[in-house]
Amino acid sequence: MEKAIMQEVSNTSGEFERQPVPSSHHKSWKRFLGMYAGEHAAGTEFVIGPLFLTAGVSAFDLIVGLLLGNFLAVLTWRYVTTPIATAERLTLYYKLEKIAGKKLVTGYNLANGLLFCFLAGAMITVSATAVGIPFDMPMPALTDTIPTSMSWVLVVLGVGAVISVVAARGYDTVAKFSNWAAPFMIAVFLIAGIVAASRLGVDSWSSLWAVWGEGSEPFPGQIKFTFWHVLFFAWFCNAAMHLGMSDLSVLRYADKNSVGWTTAAGMYVGHFMAWISACLMFALYLKSPEAAAIIASGGVPPVAPGPLAYEVVGVAGLLCVLVAGWTTANPTIYRAGLAFQAIFPKSSTVKVTLVTGGIATIAGLFPAFAMKLLDFVAVYGFILAPVGAVIFFEHYLAEKFGLKKNYAALFKVQFNWAVLLAWLIPMAVFFGLAWYYGVFLSFFTLPAWLACGVLYLLISKVFQKN
């Protein structure tokens, strides 16, 4: 009876939360290209770009680090995530439930959904900095953690409501919105970068070196970024999506594995061109009398995307910041909604997504999620990525180790201890090492992922034998 109800819910919503996506709903690379370009040339770029400068990174370390780190990310999407997505055609949450058990995956889905809500909240913060310009709204500073004014609260609530409604309309609406917005955002990022470079006097590599050069000392509260920080951050800032298999929920619609290459549109348009453009915009602002006065007084210049873009390209910049926040928050809220949907499978997808959007909007009221985005993205990727190793190692190695696939579903297990132990042990060990030695957490994402996969196979061998 329960299975019949779940089937009915899935068919009614059209999102196939608890069944494989049928071939009639498979989509070509064209439907993914705009979505990935729109999602990754989006709100986070306006924040992460300037934050690289606050970390004192040099021009060489940033440019070469991004080239290589983004290439590794694309390879991971193409050869780790996409083949499993097209083979299983299931959401991450339902697939994990079949391996880990209903009770264990409920806790994971809650953590996953909340982390995605916080990320979406940061993007609502980004959009709000654009909407607040005409109202002369005070912008959050780099050190702000809580709402700073009533106007800020009202603007964030309004932006969050619109974003939530779009996300609640499902995958097709999210993809269409991203496809429509992507060309505009890419053009504005490119133009803004060119204008900012021109106003900085950059017309060659030597002049860029004169402006940027060896980097600088990091701002108070920031760590110094090197080439390796940039490379591993670029590779693993989306670790939850590729290594962590969250994008199984999106790529399950792909008609073939080559769709995984479309992620390059997001990486090199967004995580390369847009990040560098945003860096140049912030570099221009740092040369302004306002920023100079803040620095001279011992303060920290604000990293507010709306004013930065408005100063360089005017109203088009404001529109770009606004839309950029939407195109990142929309698919993020959609993913979070799927996580919560797995906890409440009988609930309407629309209602769950609207509630998810409400949580994200509340998070957006707090500027800390956006202003500490480098640290937050590293943490959430580190936490969620290892679980994807369970799926990857089981998919390719379970039978070679004499293990049963989809163990929890096969034996009606509600809580697979092998999954929990394999997830928590590497996290505790590597997080402790990072904290004790003061190491940037992204350096430990891959070791934690590999350790989780190996431990899952070894512990499962013992549990399944018993």
Automatic annotation (TrEMBL):
InterPro entries: CodB. Keywords: Membrane, Transmembrane, Transmembrane helix. GO terms for molecular function: cytosine transmembrane transporter activity. The chain crosses the membrane at residues 59-80, 108-130, 150-168, 180-202, 225-244, 265-288, 308-329, 350-370, 376-397, 409-429, 435-459. GO terms for cellular component: plasma membrane. PANTHER family: CYTOSINE PERMEASE, CYTOSINE TRANSPORTER CODB. This is Purine-cytosine permease-like protein. It comes from Mongoliibacter ruber.
